[in-house]
Amino acid sequence: MEMFMELYTRYPAQLEDVDFIVNYYADKIASADSLDTDQKEAMLSALSVSAYSPRYWISRLEPEE
Predict the structure, then answer these.
(1) Residue 65 has pLDDT above 70, yes or no
(2) Other CB atoms within 10 A of residue 17 CB
(3) CA pair distance 33, 39, nearest whole angstrom
(4) How far apart are CA 29 and CA 39, in angstroms?
(5) What is the pLDDT of residue 34?
(6) Whole-angstrom distance, CA of residue 40 vs CA of residue 62
(7) 3-state secondary structure of 7
(8) The predicted structure's pLDDT at residue 60
(9) Confidence of residue 64 (pLDDT cuts 50, 70, 90)
(10) How many CB atoms neighbour CB 42 within 10 A?
(11) From CA 59, how far away is CA 37, in angstroms rounded?
């Protein structure tokens, strides 16, 4: 998750970049044999927040027309 956070905070220039990073890690988590179901669900929930948080803030910070 440390590498995810580094990529997430440095790499994305567009929302599509965020989606790419989140989807990549979601696939890795879902297929990880070393994680149990509860761990996977918790991590995937955190990724979901990571994916939708930028959209929320963009919609709140954009000037209203």
Answers:
(1) no
(2) 14
(3) 11
(4) 9
(5) 97
(6) 34
(7) helix
(8) 74
(9) low
(10) 12
(11) 33
Residue 15 identity: L
Contacts 24+ apart (CB under 8 A), 46-55: 47/4, 47/22, 48/22, 50/8, 50/18, 50/22, 51/18, 51/19, 51/22, 54/12, 54/15, 54/18, 55/15
pLDDT in tens, 17-47: 888 889 999 999 999 999 999 999 999 999 9
Write out the two tokens for 27: 């696939």
How would DSSP label each residue in 8-51?
Answer: HHHS-SSHHHHHHHHHHHHHHHHT-TTS-HHHHHHHHHHHHHHH
- Tokens 């910070």 appear where? 61
Contact 4, 51 (CB under 8 A): no
